[in-house]
Amino acid sequence: RVAIYVARADLKYDENADIKSLARKFYRLMADLEFLPNSPTLMNAGTTMGQLSACFVLPVEDSMEGIFNSLKYMALIHKSGGGVGFSFSKLRPKGDLVQTTAGIASGPVSFMRIYDTATEVIKQGGRRRGANMGILNVNHPDILEFIKAKENKDIPLSNFNLSVAVDDIFIEKVQTDGEIELINPRNQEVVKKISARTVFDLMVEMAWKTGDPGILFLDEINRKNPTPKLGSIEATNPCGEQPLLDYESCNLGTVNLARIVEDGEILWDKLKDTVEIAVHFLDNVIDVNHYPLDEIKNHTLKTRKIGLGVMGFADLLIKLGIPYNSWEALQVAEKIMKFISQMAREASVELGKNKGSFPAFKGSKWDKEGYPAMRNATATTIAPTGSISIIAGVSSGIEPLFAVS
Question: Is omega for the bond preceding 213 within 30 degrees of 0, making it cis?
Fold first, then answer.
């Protein structure tokens, strides 16, 4: 079902395309558990649902219409098995003026709780648990409440991962024991100054106590933004591995590293073939996908982001006789991922020659680095592979096997 449906995308570019042969390649790769796409593709390809992407980012504007439009869009995405990242940094802080009602704002964290409750309700009838990423800028006046949001167990945010968006200035102020300005996003006025180290120490304490928040280094993310002319990146998908622009989506897929080793040797030719077919598969998903919103479809087709990653890394090391916590394991990881990255980009270039490159290629990172026109703005992503690693029967992502006895 999945292989045939995804192979059909080639007919869009060549009505005489041999999609039977392509579908057989896709099928064999998945049936042999050498490659698996993200869960929504496995669940929904060839069905009436038809939404195949795992990762989305939606904007949250500072108005009731903006807040609740994003809530509605989130519900549609969760219903189909996707996860959503949000930056709540544009919302005015708690206690701020609301001119239309002459009232006061309840702040970002209160609206996050509404999103969390909606996710809880939707996941009861969904095909897998909905997940969100909630992000707040470190300069937001409500940042301390956000950092401590999961401390109160009576008001859970169980369907959210939390991340503080920090910049280079914040890290510098932490190191020099300086102060940062807390700025009201409604009018850009400085509300007060606060010790950067106090904020950082609270983040560390809460991460130790509750598992959240994490940190997003937004300056660094945007230095590596492949399409800066389309805007800056403010958020990521729920697990943080896929930075996306507002209304972008990305579909992920994973190479099973446990299947590319034999008799203590890595099968480089097999890995190359697997990557080439996987990139073709993931790119096709973009064309046959049923997008939940026209905005998401339009933005996704501008950049054609895909994310090929790995699972079974711990299994690979075991087969190679290499301890996970060794220098040699790091060298193997670097060598394999460099190879996959290079092969994925070359495969994207080949697709670009045959099907055309993504519209935003000119002026992109890849254009500046002298690549011929690539098909996809991103090609690789290291994802957790929570569901599909269970299907494949291997260790998840790049994680070690835990507490082996």
Answer: yes
Query: pLDDT confidence of 156, banded at 50, 70, 90?
Result: confident
Among 19-28, 46-55, 115-124, 160-169, which stretch is predicted with the lowest mean pLDDT?
Answer: 115-124
- Catalytic annotation on 237? yes
**What percent of the chain stands above pLDDT 70?**
98
> CA 67 to CA 113: how far, in whole Å?
12
Q: CA 277 to CA 25: how far, in whole Å?
A: 7
* pLDDT confidence tier of residue 128, bands split at 50, 70 and 90: low
Q: Considering the candidates 44, 137, 237, 289, report the single residue annotated as catalytic.
A: 237
Angle between helices 168-176 and 196-210 (to 10 degrees): 100
**Which position has the token pair 């935003």?**
360
Let me know if 184 is a catalytic residue: no
Q: What is the dihedral of CA 135, 140, 144, 145, to 10 degrees?
A: -70
Instruction: Please report where in the chains the tokens 């099907």 appear, as a residue.
Output: 355
Can you name the residues that pair with 217 across neighbouring β-strands? Answer: 166
**pLDDT of 127 over the 70 cut:** no
| 55 labelled catalytic | no
- Return the ∠ at Cα 250 (arms to 78 and 116), rounded to 5°: 30
12: which residues sit within 8 A by CB, 6+ positions away?
287
Query: What is the pLDDT of the chain when averaged over all its residues?
Result: 94
Select which of 239, 250, 284, 346 is catalytic.
239
- Residue 14 φ/ψ, nearest 5 degrees: -150, 110
The set of residues, in sequence order, having a beta carbon less than 8 Å from that of 257 and lying 6+ positions away, is 310, 311, 312, 313, 315, 316, 336, 394
Pairing status of strand 306-311 against strand 179-183? unpaired
